[in-house]
């Protein structure tokens, strides 16, 4: 299948010489769903193709954003990559291992974080959960202590080690889950919505940590998220999946260009004004002294901010990123 990123002439070109650690070829996953037929008790069976013919590779050390709307097939893909689900068709290799046949062997080579499900023991202190992880993965003492110390330092977990997991906030628990997933030095890390529901400070800490781990250990990361800032901060490459199919594979700038997506600048002025005009942006709407301006997502907001500050009594402003769903809807001419 031709990659949409290639067709759009995007900047990303994976290094074909790099060793692929994630390989999918024609992968599909079909579920049988039963639903009531008419008003009677009879139920009919129909097939739902959650994943439909995925083919891609990810080289060692790359951080890839794997995005799409709800129900697109992202979590189903990750479950097949980890061996939780078996594909209905196609071929998968992770670090040269078939997840379907050698799930236990693969588990020692990968780490997984599901944003809405914890892998920690609910009633145990964080420290005890990590000790159980050490025993499960048979991590040597010196290696375990070094990895734990590094995670505790970078994720600011020192004050939380003796706190039961059930008493941790969502942001604290998420940082704890990410540390647990990395104690055994996985070659591949799957992150399914790792910053969902986190505050700004927790998100920043998680992103900084993942950047450091990737730089220091060449850990390959596949990241699913609805937060474009996660993608912009961590990923050079992004893949879009929609209705189970890979619709785009390339750089983030290319995705914005294909989807003609826009960011929104929300400006608060000292008093109510007529619609402001500034080159590179279009007026969207106004509400009292607040006005909304849209500009291309790939463009910098700095010139717009400078122009507004120079010509108008600007009090405050913020920039809002486009939603993933909006980008995809624009890409394929769907109503937003």
From TrEMBL:
It comes from the Bacteria. Residues 22-268 form the ABC transporter domain. InterPro entries: AAA+_ATPase, ABC_transporter-like_ATP-bd, ABC_transporter_ATP-binding, P-loop_NTPase. Keywords: Antibiotic resistance, ATP-binding, Nucleotide-binding, Transport. It is found in: Cell membrane. The keyword Nucleotide-binding applies. Pfam families: ABC_tran (PF00005). SUPFAM superfamilies: P-loop containing nucleoside triphosphate hydrolases. It is a peripheral membrane protein. Its main location: membrane. This is ATP-binding cassette domain-containing protein. GO terms for molecular function: ATP binding.
């Amino acid at each position: 299948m031709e990659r949409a990123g290639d067709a759009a002439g995007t900047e990303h070109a994976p290094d074909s010489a790099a060793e692929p650690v994630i390989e999918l070829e024609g992968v599909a996953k079909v579920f049988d769903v039963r639903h009531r037929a008419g008003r009677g008790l009879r139920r009919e069976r129909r097939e739902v193709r959650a994943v439909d013919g995925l083919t891609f590779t990810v080289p060692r050390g790359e951080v890839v954003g794997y995005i799409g709307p709800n129900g697109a097939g992202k979590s189903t893909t990750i479950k097949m990559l980890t061996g939780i689900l078996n594909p209905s068709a196609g071929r998968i290799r992770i670090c040269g291992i078939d997840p379907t046949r050698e799930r236990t062997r693969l588990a020692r080579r990968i780490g997984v974080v599901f944003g809405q499900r914890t892998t920690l023991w609910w009633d145990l202190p964080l420290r005890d959960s990590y000790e159980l992880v050490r025993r499960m993965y048979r991590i040597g003492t010196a290696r375990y202590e070094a990895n734990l110390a590094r995670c505790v330092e970078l994720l600011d977990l020192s004050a939380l080690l003796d706190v039961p997991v059930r008493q941790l906030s969502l942001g604290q628990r998420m940082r704890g889950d990410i540390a647990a997933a990395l104690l055994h030095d996985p070659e591949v890390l799957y992150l399914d919505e790792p910053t969902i529901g986190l505050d700004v400070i927790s998100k920043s800490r998680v992103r900084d940590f993942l950047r450091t781990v990737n730089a220091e250990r060449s850990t390959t990361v596949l990241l699913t998220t609805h937060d474009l800032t996660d993608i912009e901060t961590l990923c050079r490459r992004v893949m879009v999946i929609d209705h189970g199919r890979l619709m785009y594979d390339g750089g983030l700038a290319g995705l914005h260009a294909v989807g003609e997506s826009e960011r929104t600048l929300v400006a608060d002025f000292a008093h109510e004004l007529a619609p402001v005009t500034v080159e590179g942006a279009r007026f969207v709407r106004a509400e009292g002294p607040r006005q909304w301006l849209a500009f291309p997502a790939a463009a910098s907001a700095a010139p717009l901010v400078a122009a507004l500050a120079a010509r108008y009594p600007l009090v405050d402003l913020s920039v809002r990123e486009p939603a993933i769903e909006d980008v995809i809807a624009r890409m394929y001419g769907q109503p937003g």
